């Protein structure tokens, strides 16, 4: 038994690892975001508590100064108030008994009078109250006065810090996702190409020996020549398959081909291999002899896959129309319609996924392969143009029209 070559086996192993890598990467992102939020939240709480204590100390000092007798060392307390305010940016408003507002750490324009200052401070007070810090009550004995305070710049910054970190983690997550998708696509390509090469390679050896055997049989008088002819046809078919695989396993060479001629002759070949109850019509509004850049073997494979699906969808009885025409922006369209069972909306986005099949014996690879051939090797597009349940479906291949060399 021959095992898969290293080139194919490695990407397959990566597929399994890929999911785990994604999960691990996602978990690390969530952990980083969670840890950062938790840590910063603790820091914010501690800072909030410290700022509250500072304002309480400040309120206590003011209260002491305002209620102490004349012998008290007022200067000492003013020094203390100054010290408390040093190195912090906590905006503070003290509303005294008469309703007059005094402020610390609140910037005021230079040239304003006392009344204007009071108006500005009233507005600022509203802002501070909105920050939700409970005002500190000062019992002056004969009345109660209040100190309102907001959050320092540091505290505000710290509150926004987790958001910015979250943003960074999201960006890292997004970039990671793109990286994974890209590397996954690259690996998928390697799997396709590797498998195709491997298949072509493996088919090659028995095929050449079969050809040699048929040549021997051809000269054998006891063998019915019709059998040899049929064997020859089967070998030809196998050769076509091998050529398709070897083309997909390397960079296929595109050639200018007469599109209508290529499709007609391939449909003639296909017709005798499918149900006789399927009627296939080819219509074209292209200029006669319209060329397209295609790799004949791969392009025929695309047509074959789409037509076989159409035959399956019609359960072997119905009409198919292949309509060749020119679209906008120098596009050549090949619309392949059937009168089959159609595709329900929920499945429309799945039909091009590898492995998606609604058939008992389907691999779910036909459309994936066709799309890859059209889009990766022919710079074209393969789409499901329209579909209606029990009415039929139309698939559209669009190819770029070759530039007119005479112009
Ligand atoms: N013309 C169509 N009408 C209705 N359904 C379709 C048509 N073409 C494709 N489908 C749906 O899309 C699915 C995927 O098609 P695809 O050719 O990729 O795989 P498959 O035909 O199931 O298997 P295989 O690998 O042998 O081609 C089909 O199983 C079918 O459900
Ligand atoms: Mg198919």
From TrEMBL:
Q: What are the Histidine kinase domain coordinates in residue numbering?
A: 198-403
Which catalytic reaction applies to this protein? ATP + protein L-histidine = ADP + protein N-phospho-L-histidine
Give the matching Gene3D superfamilies.
Histidine kinase-like ATPase, C-terminal domain
The signal peptide stretch is none
Q: What EC number(s) is this enzyme filed under?
A: 2.7.13.3
Q: Name one Pfam family in it.
A: HATPase_c
Question: Which PANTHER family does the annotation name?
Answer: C4-DICARBOXYLATE TRANSPORT SENSOR PROTEIN DCTB, SENSOR HISTIDINE KINASE
Output this protein's name. Answer: histidine kinase
Organism for this UniProt entry = Aquirufa regiilacus
Q: What is the lineage of its organism?
A: Bacteria, Pseudomonadati, Bacteroidota, Cytophagia, Cytophagales
């Amino acid at each position: 038994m021959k095992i898969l070559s290293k080139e194919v086996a490695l990407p397959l192993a990566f597929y399994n690892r890929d999911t785990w890598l994604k999960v691990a990467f996602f978990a690390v992102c969530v952990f980083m975001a969670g840890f950062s939020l938790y840590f910063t939240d603790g820091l914010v709480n501690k800072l909030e508590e410290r700022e509250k204590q500072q304002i309480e100390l400040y309120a206590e000092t003011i209260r002491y100064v305002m209620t102490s007798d004349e012998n008290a060392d007022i200067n000492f307390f003013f020094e203390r108030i100054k010290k408390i305010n040093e190195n912090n940016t906590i905006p503070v408003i003290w509303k005294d008994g008469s309703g007059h507002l005094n402020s610390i750490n609140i910037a005021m324009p230079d040239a304003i009078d006392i009344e204007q200052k009071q108006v500005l401070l009233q507005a600022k007070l509203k802002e501070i109250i909105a920050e939700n810090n409970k005002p500190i009550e000062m019992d002056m004995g004969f009345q109660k006065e209040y100190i309102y305070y907001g959050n320092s710049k540091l505290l505000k910054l710290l509150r926004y810090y987790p958001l910015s970190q979250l943003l960074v983690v999201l960006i890292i997550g997004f970039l990671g996702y793109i990286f994974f998708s890209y590397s996954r696509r690259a690996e998928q390509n390697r799997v396709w190409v590797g498998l195709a090469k491997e298949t072509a390679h493996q088919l090659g050896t028995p095929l050449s020996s079969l050809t040699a055997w048929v040549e021997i049989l051809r000269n054998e008088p006891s063998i019915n020549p019709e059998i040899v002819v049929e064997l020859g046809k089967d070998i030809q078919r196998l050769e076509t398959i091998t050529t398709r695989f070897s083309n997909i396993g390397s960079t296929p060479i595109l050639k200018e081909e007469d599109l209508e001629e290529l499709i007609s002759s391939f449909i003639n070949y296909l017709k005798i291999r499918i149900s006789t109850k399927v009627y296939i019509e080819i219509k074209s509004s292209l200029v006669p002899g319209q060329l397209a850049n295609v790799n004949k073997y791969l392009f025929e494979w695309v047509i074959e896959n789409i037509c076989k699906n159409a035959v399956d969808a019609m359960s072997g009885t119905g009409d198919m129309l292949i309509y060749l025409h020119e679209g906008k922006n120098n596009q050549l369209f090949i619309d392949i319609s059937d009168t089959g069972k159609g595709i329900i909306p929920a499945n429309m986005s799945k039909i091009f996924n590898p492995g998606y099949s609604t058939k008992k014996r389907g691999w779910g690879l036909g459309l994936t392969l066709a799309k890859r051939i059209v889009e990766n090797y022919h710079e074209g597009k393969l789409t499901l143009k329209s579909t209606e349940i029990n009415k039929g479906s139309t698939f559209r291949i669009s190819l770029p029209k070759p530039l007119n060399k005479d112009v």
